[in-house]
Amino acid sequence: MRISGLGGRLYRGETSLNIIGGKRKWYSLSLAFIILSGFALGAKGVELSIEFKGGSSFTVTAPSGTIPQAESAVQSAGYSGETRIQTIGDNKIRIQTGVIEQSQSNSIQDSLAKTFGVTVESIDTQNVGPSWGEEISRKALQGLIAFLIIVMIYLALAFEPKMAIAAIVALIHDVFITVGIYALVGFEVSPSTVIGFLTILGYSLYDTVVVFDKVRENTRFITATGKYTYSQAANLAVNQTIVRSLNTSLIALLPVAAILFVGAGILGAGTLKDLSLALFIGLIAGTYSSIFIASPVLAQLREREPAIKALNQRVMARGGAPVAQGQRLQRKRDKRKGRK
Amino acid sequence: MSFGSSRNSGSANRSRPGRTLFIHLFLTAALFATAFGIGATSINLGLDLRGGTSVTLQPRVQTGDSGNVSAESIDQAVSIIRQRVDSLGVAESEVTAEGSGTNRQIVIAVPGETGRRIVELVGQTAELRFRQVLVETGGVPTPTDNELIAGLNLSPEEQSAFTTLDCTAAELNITSVTEDPNKNLITCDRTGGVRYVLAPAQVVGRDVESATAAIDPASASGWFVSLDFSGDGSKKFGELTQAVVNLPTPQNQVAIVLDGSVVSAPRINEAILGGRAQITGSFSQLEAQDLANVLKYGSLPLAFDRGEVQQVSPTLGSDQLRAGLLAGGLGLALVVIYSILYYRALSIAVIGSLSLAAVQVILSLFLLGKTVGFTLTLAGIAGTIVAIGITADSFIVYFERIRDEMRDGKPLRVAVETGWIRARRTIVVADLVSGISAVVLYVVSVGSVRGFAFTLGLTTIIDLLIIFFFTKPLVSLMAKSKYLQNGGRFSGVSARSVGMANFADSKSEEKL
User: Fold this and answer.
1) How many CB atoms lie under 10 A from the CB of residue B239?
2) Are A145 and A138 in contact (CB under 8 A)?
3) pTM over the 0.90 mark
């Protein structure tokens, strides 16, 4: 029942979750998700906000206003293109149009102000040019690529090159899953959503770094001690950090949930909701991937190395050490440190 | 084991946690004093938090022109637009270039309810024109004005425009921006001290090929601007100068007009037929360079694509501000409650650190607002809230490490130190990754993304400072308390919470 008690047992290896060994399961689960996401993306794509498509949006505060009223107000302003009208919260109406000229936007504002008896200044308006979306998409892509390259180099230097690869695999996994969920559910993607995505990248890595740090610690002298296969040592590390990972993720989720609650519940739409929804989904995917994807991928990558292969054969020849003896590995390492 | 622990507690004494804490708090107090000393006592709120209009323009080379959108030409465009916006007389308007390199955008933010005028005003192409001066006189209307324009054949509208124009008025005549090159222009100079009646434009900006500020060391004339006209421009400028050179002052002057106001009105000393002119005067280096820039970039006017126009009503602004603050408070409260439940007495360190971090973030926003004009947007607030989680993560990494060390059988005072050595590295690496993402986001982005990236980066730095120089020493101090050492029930490091119930030493059982 007590998580912290569980933490102690996981740490000593008394309780062990076979995470690395069960990699097929996790990979299949993720693959299924990714295929589903791919289908959803291919079939209907993601719903893009006007910032990406270009267009205008008018939000009128009118407690007694109706959608047909808004419709006729837009028509009487001489706009006949496609519109999307929805109510937001209990006192707002939002009208979205395609790309229009500034003068057209002004006349729609005037017409709405007249219809709903409000001042022009009280109408929240956004006009986005047709090429704006391209520009910000390009920038987001540039940012993504720059970020991946810098972080790859950094992680390769701070840890091991293979850890960098495994971390990036987990990262791409997270982005796929999150985008897939957006496509499946039909959440709208705005620039704030994109900020959210980009932030997830940083956060997903943060989580992976915590796990990998422990993996590295546990596997540093692995070939010298010859007691554990790489997978066993890595699995112990994942078990030892699992409580920590869940904790850090949960505590990071709390403020995000607060933003989501306030953003979606009180404001109804906009920056806060878009940003926190992307973060919320991404954080969960990130926690999952740092435990169930990043570490197994790392173990697979490392176990291709001749030195690790030889080690695994030696350990296996001796009948293999049960994972539960993790405590001894820990002690051994501490003694080594003491001797130095 | 005993050997290890005595060595480690030795290093704990050397680190002097009390002194570190004192210095940290002292520096925070100094930051506080500085902020209030220089009057930085409020945060600049973005338009999405207080209402107003923001326009983002994407510069492009005007059709028919060759060349690139250079960083210099964007700077020039920014200063031209700033002049236009300032002429509206709205306080706290901002015109800035955002983004990197030549892919920059120009962002204009004007608070209050001037929406439409701003949108119309800023999107227009700056066009430089050369017009012959017909009348040059003082900045305020006088009874003798009618005599000055007597022989000029001005239309009645032009006459009344001239006799009523007051260049010293706070709000300049915005309509002059939409000057018609084929008509006379009645306008002021940039300083507002001189009124002009100008003839229709005969030479336009695109006729100028290049302009440079230079100094002739041989003569005492000081800085001057040298001006080259294109083939067609040479001819037109030649005709213009030939026509005016022998006229009486001020009609032998040619005004350089940008955006409807007169930048300079040099006298023509000789007909300039070769396409190369020099403007001399008692210029300082800066003045000469400014004039050369006006001539150069007036000749390559940037066109703007309307990127995004956003008009936020003050009601929505204050709603968003309230929502942001509420989300922040709620997020902070949730994190505090969670850490109290999970870490018991250790949560004192969490709460203390988060409070100090909050104070430092707010002080930094005060100072940055005052010194570099940083404005906090809704996305920026979201950034700080998300950072609460990241800051709390550092504590968890550290505390769980302490528990790990205790699981290895180390007493609390030792575990606090050895756990720190291990946790430190993880925290630095993880914070650096988060810092890198903030920097990358900041460099490539525009508008609200920037605000988010900035506050995320800022709080990451503060997080590192706090955990190194506040949380760690505080935990070291707390580890000296008998209650924690004995693993008291609400200590957060009791045998039960560490998960060592089976191994628990008899001493802590007795205490309970």
Assistant:
1) 14
2) no
3) no
